[in-house]
Design brief:
There is one protein chain. The protein is mainly alpha-helical and about 325 residues long. It has one domain: Na+/H+ antiporter like fold. The chain has 18 helices and no strands. α6 packs across α9 and α6 packs across α14. The model has no long low-confidence stretch (mean pLDDT about 85).
């Protein structure tokens, strides 16, 4: 077990460095991509369970005691950010399908893996968890009217079905996390923190296999268009991130504002595949495949910046004391 713990610890300490290599695993094992698609649900539950095991529970309880911050950030993610980025994408004269995809992405809820990667980046993972959960619960009420108003898309999103599915994912993950925390105990959990991060890295690597399903075939069919969509996906994630961070920075401390921005950048785009009408522009589905690339790479790109900004704020607070 010591050898396994050491290996997982090394993976955990190099989490953001290893994330981009997850994409290579997904690309190499294309033959297994379709076969592993049914694993997406269980892997999402396992990833959330690991995030809950690592969650700073006192911090989470404090946030839940005063939930208005997380709720306000969730509402801003789902309503304010899309209304800001929509005219920007409209003005650039991009492919209509790409514009629609970028706007829909900004309307989507937070992605569950953001909680895990926020911990890797030393952001407020407890806040990231709550914002992600609140956006997923609220999105049935915000996405359909926004998509119809801004894009003319009539999305069939069942509030009941989505809520039940999300409740099952959260309930299963929470039950598993509580059992693990009870069995391991707080002291052992603290000692095993990097090993748990390493296990999360492995889950993210396996997760990349079904997410990359078909992307090689798309690259072979139209490489330049796919490359353009990947670039647009990077721009879309970073724009939502920056917009949210700048909106909240005047009112929140820097680490909290960066966490809010990071949550806004990472969206659950795969949800759109289940709610888009069959007449939707095929370019929207191409974007959903392309956006998986920045989801795995952006944490690595942003880590040095986040470390510098958070360290600078901490130094300023220490100097003030």
């Amino acid at each position: 077990m010591d050898l396994v713990d050491q290996l997982l610890g090394r993976l955990g300490r190099r989490a953001t460095t290893l994330l981009p290599f997850s994409l290579a695993i997904g690309l190499v094992f294309q033959s297994a991509a379709a076969f592993t698609r049914p694993l997406v649900g269980p892997l999402a539950i396992l990833l959330l369970m690991l995030a809950l095991i690592r969650t700073d529970w006192p911090r989470a309880r404090l946030l839940l005691a005063r939930p208005w911050l997380a709720i306000a950030l969730a509402v801003a993610n789902l309503l304010v950010v899309p209304l800001i980025v929509w005219p920007i994408w409209q003005a650039l004269g991009l492919w209509p399908g790409l514009v629609a995809a970028l706007c829909l992405s900004a309307m989507a809820p937070g992605i569950i893996s953001a909680t895990t990667t926020a911990a890797f980046l030393r952001l407020d993972s407890s806040l990231a968890l709550l914002v992600t959960l609140f956006t997923n619960f609220l999105v049935p009420f915000t996405l359909p009217p926004l998509a119809l108003w801004l894009l003319g898309l009539d999305l069939k999103l069942s509030v009941g079905d989505l809520s039940l599915r999300l409740a099952f994912i959260i309930g299963t993950a929470l039950a598993g996390a509580l059992v693990v925390r009870a069995v391991m105990g707080a002291p052992r959990l603290r000692r095993s923190a990097t090993a748990i991060d390493g296990l999360s890295v492995i889950v993210l690597m396996v997760f990349a296999v079904p997410l990359m399903d078909g992307i090689v075939a798309r690259a072979e069919a139209d490489p330049w268009k796919l490359a353009g969509f990947v670039g647009a996906a990077f721009a879309g994630m970073l724009l939502c991130n920056v917009v949210m961070a700048l909106l909240t920075l005047p009112f929140l401390d820097r680490r909290t504002a960066l966490t809010a921005g990071y949550c806004s950048g990472g969206r659950h785009n795969a949800l759109l595949m289940a709610v888009l009408p069959i007449t939707a522009d095929p370019d929207i589905f191409l974007f959903i495949a392309a956006v998986q690339v920045p989801i795995y790479i952006i944490p690595t790109l942003l880590q040095p910046l986040y470390r510098r900004l958070v360290r600078a704020e901490a130094s300023g607070v220490a100097a003030g004391d």
